[in-house]
Structure formats: structure tokens, C-alpha cells
């Protein structure tokens, strides 16, 4: 695995640059419904751009075969075959199931330059993507477990 510097594995609440405000949600999100349906950490991560504490997420060491969906709208985001072990405390993925299922936005918060990853369907904050992942992709989608729902794949 590539270099993982301290900045790429920070557990801070983030806010994105002004380009984030130009995105329009394709799926209307009712904040009251989400507050009732999601846990406090799921709501904070997906709606307030918080970050769960490292090594505490349900899917950090998860190894089952299947797909990881957006906890808000259930859009398919990542397949288990693109997941790889990381040392930073959050699940790491090489690539999304389909690139169009995630949106990438420049994030200038916390005196860092990062790329925020959101669900392209509902704009839920998922995490960040870095260029220090395994070959050949070299990408590491560092995703909060709280933003995900796992659907196990039944063997044929």
C-alpha cells in the first residue's frame, strides 16, 4: 500500500469548498425523516460532513462478499472486491462500482487540499479519495462506515 500521511487519515469534521453548493440533489432528502431513520453518527457523517472516529466503524475490518450501498438512498457505491486493508482506520476501496455513482468535489477545509466523495444520487457525504492506494489504480476511497449499508452477496 502507498504512503499514508497524517493528513490523508484525519478524523475531523469537514466542510467543502463553494463548488459544493452548486450541486443539486437528485433525490429529495427530508432532514426530519433522516434524523428519525439514521443513527446520530450516520446523520452527522452524511448530512453534516462529520467523520467517524478511526477504527470504530462497522466496515473497517469487514471482509464479507457483497456491495456497499449509500445509507441514505441505497445507491450502489462500492463492491467488496475493490475493498482493501488500510492502516488509517476507515474502509478503503480502489474504485466505485460505477464512477457516476459518486461525485468528487474539492475540499479546502482544515488547511488541507482534499477531494470529498459524495453519493451522486442524494449528495450524502461519504468520505475522501486520495492517490496513495494500491496499484494499478493508486486511488484510496477512504469512506466512513456510517455512510454505508452492506448487502451480502449470496453464493450461487
Automatic annotation (TrEMBL):
One of its GO terms (cellular component) is cytoplasm. This is Peptide-methionine (R)-S-oxide reductase. Signal peptide: none annotated. Gene3D superfamilies: Peptide methionine sulfoxide reductase. InterPro entries: Met_Sox_Rdtase_MsrB (IPR028427), Met_Sox_Rdtase_MsrB_dom (IPR002579), Mss4-like_sf (IPR011057). Belongs to the MsrB Met sulfoxide reductase family. It comes from the Eukaryota. Keywords: Metal-binding, Oxidoreductase, Zinc. One of its GO terms (molecular function) is metal ion binding. Binds 1 zinc ion per subunit. It catalyses: L-methionyl-[protein] + [thioredoxin]-disulfide + H2O = L-methionyl-(R)-S-oxide-[protein] + [thioredoxin]-dithiol. Its EC number is 1.8.4.12. PANTHER family: METHIONINE SULFOXIDE REDUCTASE (PTHR10173), METHIONINE-R-SULFOXIDE REDUCTASE B1 (PTHR10173:SF52). Its cofactor is Zn(2+). One of its GO terms (biological process) is response to oxidative stress. Transmembrane segments: none annotated. Methionine-sulfoxide reductase that specifically reduces methionine (R)-sulfoxide back to methionine. While in many cases methionine oxidation is the result of random oxidation following oxidative stress, methionine oxidation is also a post-translational modification that takes place on specific residues.
Amino acid at each position: 500500500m502507498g504512503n499514508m500521511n497524517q493528513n490523508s487519515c484525519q478524523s475531523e469534521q469537514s466542510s467543502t469548498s463553494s463548488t459544493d453548493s452548486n450541486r443539486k440533489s437528485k433525490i429529495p432528502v427530508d432532514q426530519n425523516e433522516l434524523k428519525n431513520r439514521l443513527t446520530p453518527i450516520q446523520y452527522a457523517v452524511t448530512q453534516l460532513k462529520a467523520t467517524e472516529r478511526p477504527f470504530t466503524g462497522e466496515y473497517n475490518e469487514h471482509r464479507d462478499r457483497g456491495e456497499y450501498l449509500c445509507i441514505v438512498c441505497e445507491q450502489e457505491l462500492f463492491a467488496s472486491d475493490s475493498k482493501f486493508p488500510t492502516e488509517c482506520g476507515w474502509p478503503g476501496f480502489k474504485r466505485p462500482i460505477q464512477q457516476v455513482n459518486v461525485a468528487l468535489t474539492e475540499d479546502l477545509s482544515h488547511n488541507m487540499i482534499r477531494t470529498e466523495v459524495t453519493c451522486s444520487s442524494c449528495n450524502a457525504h461519504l468520505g475522501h479519495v486520495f492517490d496513495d492506494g494500491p496499484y494499478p489504480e493508486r486511488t484510496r476511497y477512504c469512506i466512513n462506515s456510517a455512510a454505508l449499508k452492506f448487502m451480502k452477496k449470496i453464493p450461487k
